[in-house]
Specification:
The chain is of the alpha/beta class and 405 residues long. Helix content is 33%, strand content 23%. The strands form 2 sheets. The protein has an 8-stranded mixed β-sheet, with helices on one face. It is globular, with a radius of gyration of 21 Å. One of its GO terms (molecular function) is hydrolase activity, acting on carbon-nitrogen (but not peptide) bonds, in cyclic amidines.
Length: 405
């Protein structure tokens, strides 16, 4: 793995441009101090730079995972036999009991999955971490350790998430405050109507905590149809009243795909600059992607859980998630597949608030090379990552982490 202070020149790489059969123009990228210094066809190498010939590979910005659960994963462990009941509350209770009795180590597991994300080109990531009255801050401490270990190469945001509910488990609000004070970046929330049974009280408590600690909010809203719409309207009332525009993400928002006419609600979401996250699940309704984008809503993608007690599915590959977004939303044209990729790149960086993102001078040098003729082909074929650069360091080659990473 190259040092953060080592200058780098990536030569002979192609910018993504699906207007052409073979992608865009061939350029070089100079990297100094972890930042893109220059990008273009005639870029000279910085003094003492390592020169890396990209071999005509397609150049992409580092991928952004907008919603996962690093603390829950069984990645790399023996198969978990899933016999959980069908309800959300079944899954919550089953997971809480399993983690309590099995010795599941959030630090070890989050590090294993984070490294796999990095090898596949994800350089920025938002993870939700369970905070509850059984575990206290134990899972958070494990993930904070992973964030510290990979701080030079993986830009990680942590959401303090009340997976078991807020009001229904007294003491959770205090634990959430402690988590935010300990280093969590974002305050999470969960289904104020169906889990807490008191949407007004639950949202009031959530927004009060966010205001006290000066943190943004990312709420899991699984609630369907009219119930979900009712909760969303209450949430938007608080965003407006408390000046939280641009500081709230609604994850999943299944209700927006079930309403017969969601336009008025979507227009308010857009006006208040509330972002939406979708994992594009095949079994649930999803927010209308193109309509959201037409209205100026930031809508982005994430895997959700990967190989945990909730689901046996998922791998830490954001190109695969972009493909799933394309399949779920019937995106077939090359320009539509570019929208799917945007959901795991620029839109995700914007929705999460990751600064200095992209392929331009001054951006953090997070770069991915793939052997693919076009961006659309990369999303569909998901080729092995030829090279991954994170914060100016070469961290992976041909799908494998460099030894120092």
């Amino acid at each position: 793995m190259t040092s953060a202070n080592s200058p780098l020149l990536l030569s002979n790489v192609r910018l993504p441009d699906d207007r052409h059969e073979h992608g865009g123009e061939t350029v070089s990228v100079s990297v100094v101090g972890g930042r893109i210094e220059a990008i273009g066809p005639n870029v000279a190498p910085p003094p003492d730079a390592l020169v890396e010939d990209g071999g005509g590979a397609l150049l992409l910005p580092g991928f952004v995972e907008g919603h996962t659960h690093l603390d829950k994963t069984h990645w790399g462990r023996d198969w978990y036999v899933n016999e959980v009941g069908p309800n959300l509350t079944d899954r919550i209770a089953n997971e809480r009991e399993f983690r309590k009795s099995s010795g599941h180590d959030a630090g070890v597991q989050s590090l294993a999955l984070s490294r796999a994300f990095l090898a596949a080109g994800t350089t920025r990531l938002r993870t939700h971490v369970d905070i509850d009255t059984d575990a206290g801050l134990r899972y958070l401490e494990g993930v904070l350790g992973t964030r510290d270990t990979l701080a030079d190469v993986l830009d990680m945001q942590i959401v303090a998430f009340p997976q078991s509910g807020l009001l229904i488990r007294p003491g959770t609000d205090e634990l959430l405050g402690n988590a935010l004070a300990a280093g969590a970046d974002v305050l999470g929330a969960l289904d104020p109507s169906l889990i807490d049974g008191d949407p007004v009280g639950s949202l009031n408590a959530t927004f009060a905590l966010a205001e006290r600690y000066g943190k943004p909010i990312d709420i899991h809203l699984h609630e369907p149809g009219e119930i979900g719409a009712f909760t969303l309207k209450l949430l938007l009332d608080r965003v407006e009243a408390m000046g939280m525009q641009g500081r709230v993400v609604v994850s999943h928002a299944f209700c927006l795909g079930a309403l017969p006419e969601p336009t008025a609600l979507l227009e308010r979401v857009a006006r208040l600059r509330v972002a939406l996250l979708t994992s594009a699940p095949p079994s649930r309704t999803v927010p209308p992607l193109k309509r959201c984008r037409e209205l100026g809503i930031t809508i982005f993608g994430g895997n959700d859980g990967i190989r945990d007690t909730w689901t046996p599915f998922g791998i830490p590959d954001m190109l695969e998630r972009a493909m799933f977004i394309g399949m779920r939303y019937d995106l077939r044209r090359d320009d539509d597949l570019a929208v799917a990729f945007d959901c795991v790149s620029h839109a995700a960086a914007q929705g999460c608030g990751f600064a200095d993102y992209g392929l331009h001078a001054g951006a953090r040098a997070d770069l991915v090379l793939v052997d693919a003729p076009t961006l659309a082909h990369a999303v569909v074929a998901r080729p092995v990552r030829k090279l991954v650069v994170a914060n100016g360091r070469i961290v992976a080659r041909n799908g494998a982490l460099a030894a120092a990473a």
